[in-house]
Amino acid sequence: MVVDEGVRALFNPRSIAVIGASRHPGKIGYMILKNILDYGYKGRVYPVNPKADEILGLKAYKRVSEIPDEVDMAVIVVPEKYVLEVAEDAGRKGVKVLVVITSGFAEVGNVEAEEKLVEIARKYGMRVLGPNIFGIAYTPINLNATFGPRDLLKGPIAFISQSGALGIALMGWTIMEEIGVSAIVSMGNMSDIDVVDAAEYLADDPNTKVITIYLEGLKPGTGRRFVEKMRSITRRKPVIVIKAGRSRRGAMAAASHTGSLAGSDQLYSAAFKQSGVLRAYTTDDMFDWARVFATQPLPGGEETIIITNGGGVGVLATDTAEEHSVKLLDPSPGLKEKFRETMPWFGSPKNPVDLTGQAVEENYAKALEVAFESDEIHNIVILYCRTAILDPRSLADTIVEVVKKYGNSKPVVVGMVGGIDTYEAMRKLNQNGIPAYFGAERAVAALAALIKYYRYISKKHG
Amino acid sequence: MVVDEGVRALFNPRSIAVIGASRHPGKIGYMILKNILDYGYKGRVYPVNPKADEILGLKAYKRVSEIPDEVDMAVIVVPEKYVLEVAEDAGRKGVKVLVVITSGFAEVGNVEAEEKLVEIARKYGMRVLGPNIFGIAYTPINLNATFGPRDLLKGPIAFISQSGALGIALMGWTIMEEIGVSAIVSMGNMSDIDVVDAAEYLADDPNTKVITIYLEGLKPGTGRRFVEKMRSITRRKPVIVIKAGRSRRGAMAAASHTGSLAGSDQLYSAAFKQSGVLRAYTTDDMFDWARVFATQPLPGGEETIIITNGGGVGVLATDTAEEHSVKLLDPSPGLKEKFRETMPWFGSPKNPVDLTGQAVEENYAKALEVAFESDEIHNIVILYCRTAILDPRSLADTIVEVVKKYGNSKPVVVGMVGGIDTYEAMRKLNQNGIPAYFGAERAVAALAALIKYYRYISKKHG
User: Fold this and answer.
1) Same domain for B442 and B399?
2) What is the ipTM of this complex?
3) Shortest Cα–Cα distance, A290 to chain B (Å)
4) Minimum Cα–Cα distance from B214: chain A residue
């Protein structure tokens, strides 16, 4: 695939100018420059500000065209009335991509200025991200050109957001939840670079395993392109979308918010289905699923086993499995015999495999080994209810050990219920690449997304 | 209503014997005695153990009948083969209720012993909770007669669990989440006291505002009683049920787990609907909703306003509202004018009321005041996305202040997105009796449950 130079410069700029860089903490022009520097970007950085000689220890320039070296990316933070002027100057300088943070364009009815901005960009062969965005981050090169939280964790989940406030708030949330990201892209008004452009680049990015998108609406007339491009992208990588504005009233709210035509939800549903895009309905769900794609292999089939120490969560998991079309294995007599040996006499070797409340680390380890060894089983759900005799943190160690021993050869998800030590255990599991969730339901639903994608990929290529 | 003496003794025993109390930490007979003592139960406590003179500083008795005073409740922790014998002894002593922790009865096919246990109880006029349970807690009298976590927080949510492992794990979870509970009742095999008995008592308990139930299945032939009693209970208090085993395969798992006949899910759906019971589908949902009932007043109507600083979460909230039949107000021109004064010029006074990413405490305070003052509005949803200019903890203080000023006169729920400080803000809100959730969706869904109950109550009494 031929990658557009401007889009490549968006994710891999060799140098960045911050036009509207400021010396005053609290100003967006300060926050973005500081994030770029403090997060460890290795390329050259040039603050541009007509009234300053130096900002954050760097020589400042009056205008981009005065910068002696090449400039790949220009982040624009100046007030709306100066944007066209600095864009023109950037164009003359040979900048490849404009990242226009400034708002006050189409989203407030100022369509004309936005059209002019794109016109200027086209004239000089530049691409435009925005306007009306919080910026872009691409962690493999330590790039955080946003005014959001700084210390993004590195990982294989890319997040493209058409909402600014939600996107920036979710940045902070990923840090707290220890969710590693490869890229965070604020789409804003999508005057030029849109969701599809960003996804297309990320589809071939070796640092990204799964693409998540918060979408409010596509530009009119771009639906067919979305389906065609996404169909090709989803063959390479899973894409999870939240489409907000799916209700009648929500669509109206979305239209007034981003100015995008929300369109009927059935159309979007059809587009997602045709293009193999997975649709989530809450931000929780989207990242729950993404964590499975980020860490687990694609399964070799659909047969799933549930291993539990509590009957109740086993039942809840079973309900969720059936509702999400996760196929629960009926174990063969031989396999049942093997599970029988991992549990007390009053346990159950059926599916859910109930190790009982008496289960300790060894029971889980043995049952997990049986599950990995058996050809009948393709997917594994491990459930745990806090009991007095099994410390969840110790169980987490055991699970990590066994999964490692079998080289992550089958998808594993964990659901746990309990207090603070149970959360510590889940954190430990997640840190070791095993997705763990509060409760049985979320774990099974996340696995269901993986299996759904497996089904889609098998059909496509099979 | 005439309250059964045995059921009253279950929640308000004046004295407790622990039959099978143990000196060995790690033993259930030790854990329960220790929980009873350490959680601060004020009544008399008698350890019973034929081989000990003293346990945890208390004089131990060889058998219940040797205890010189009256004994209201006997907690039985002895091995299954001794249960009938000690039950007989307790009966002779005049014990009012047996709390039978011991397992190995109907749940493993030992139906005969369970029937005999009930027979003995009937002979002496005792009631039985269990067998096969983790115990009972009733926090208003500092009673924690369980082998679960000790430091339950006091509050108005009662939780009845038919699953042992899940129930005990959720005890720990409520502590971590700072969810205050009035009672936690483990139902186990329901040989005598069942979900309806417990709910009926709690319906008249002044310390309980909402009853939550994890249910796997009713005993055969008790469906009609469930509907009749619950119909009366839900007029007094909201009841939220998770019915596990709703799928075909889940029902089979439930049947093998508790031995209860799961029955068709349609029957349960119909029973819940007829009796005004609210049905949740995950434990998360159940407690999300319960927190609204625990703290918020019933609304005066259905008209709901959303106040946000982010368009994206506003759209997600709108979608959720429509999907959960939450009626979003179309504000009158006058009301829109008032909202207009609370925001920057590029905000939106429509519903969602968008204060924009520029919003600070004052904008929220003013908008919230407008919402409380307006007769058009009955329910308030406050949304917040973490921004650089508004600290969520400070916003939490503002919200608490305004809600207090208006005397909690309208239901308020809060949804927030962000990192660790946003969680601190949500915690602060919850501590001050304002239910706060991660994300827009959960907040709106929780409010939807309150409005659904309001609708039910209005119809019943209207």
Assistant:
1) yes
2) 0.93
3) 17
4) A312
